[in-house]
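Something for you to look into today, if you have time. I want to see for myself how the chain folds. Leave the record below and I will have a look.
***
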Amino acid sequence: MYDVTVIGAGVTGCAIARELSRYEVKVCVIDRCSDICEGTSKANSGIVHAGHDAATGSWKAKMNLEGNRMMKQLCEDLDVSFRQNGSLVLCFREEDKGALEKLYEKGCANGVKGLQQLSASEVRVMEPALSNKTVAALYAPTGGIVCPFELTMALAENAFVNGTEFMLETEVLSVKKAEQGYELETDKGKILTKTVVNAAGVYADVFHNMISEERIHITPRRGEYCLLDKKDGGIVDKTIFQLPGAMGKGILVTPTVHGNLLTGPTASDLSDKEAVDTSAEGLSQVLDMAKISVPGLPVRDVITSFAGLRAHEDSDDFVLGEAKGAPGFYDAAGIESPGLTSAPAIGKYIADLVVEKLGIVEKTTFIHRRKGVIHMKMCTTQEQKRLIEVNPAYGNIICRCEMVSEGEILDAIHRPLGATTLDGIKRRTRAGMGRCQAGFCTPKTMEILMRELSLEPEHIRKKGPGSELIAKRR
């Protein structure tokens, strides 16, 4: 019997779990994937939104603003890459200046600080690479960028060291009311829990509708992205948006915290909750639309492309709180943009509801800080020398594109909730995220996984079951 069971190990579920781990409570997080952050949270823009886009008074507006304010300190505490680089929303036609003015007014009503309306000349001074067709822009200095993998992993690891259990490769098949809460049927057996937190991304409506008389409906909204080489990361400094439309904030161009340039996403509503494939049409749209903002975008420098699914609920807002007719069942559903920004605030809000319901008390032993994987590339020469003296594995470079050492990979494997797959190592260390996209480092990384986890070659996986790289020997 658990006090709380969280369904979903994405950034929202892990943020909730981390907040709950502050208390004397038995919590488990369940996810069908082989690792943390394998769903929507791994395939997004990594943008910390300022909060001027969401409808005033909505959950999105409230959680966006609060999450933005929490992000800097949270990333400092958890050793996560974050930069408050600011954002610009571009206007390309004189007749659209009214819409930009309304966006400014909405942002002010939402409580966003420091918003400024800029003229064309002011924008060009700030970002020389922008289109000369830009006639005005909205500047939000509180906008930022973060690494979504690092943030999700950090939240999960911190929750884990504070006592939260994680059940990965465990699929929830059904949820039903029980005498003392809820019974979850999984592919590994039954789980009894006093309360449930539904943070299941595009599947959140499935679990909600199993126990609540008030139905919700989530549409998977696919977004496709292109990632450009690090030599292009300085083309723009701010996150560049275009005026938002009915399907979202449109195609953006942004630097990443690791020095690349990212552009996307598209917005295509689908019925398939697993449709994360890219398309020639979608990627062409990404690059064509991005060049409207940044005409000199070097499209030949794209090193990879990917797609993710946003969980769009019919109400066009987050669904947060206790589900109707289901005491102790809490939704964190419909979490699409600005979901990453909002995650810290959603975590606190849902945790507070659960704490009040269960009447639990705070721990005196909560560990609020966490140290991430040491990145040799970011260390000084003296720091690198000391690391190699202590552990020579730090002197053996495995990934040449990102300069990731064997020592970093060993840390990724053996740390709390350590990596067991190639993608798990990639998201924790960036080994395989560079220009060659793991073309050179994969065999070496596989050897390390085999050695450290005592695995046969045919058991090394890219991610979950079915992604083995080597055929089983006959």
Residues 178 and 192 are 8 Å apart (CA to CA). The first helix runs from residue 11 to 20. The chain is about 30% helix and 25% strand. The mean pLDDT is 96.
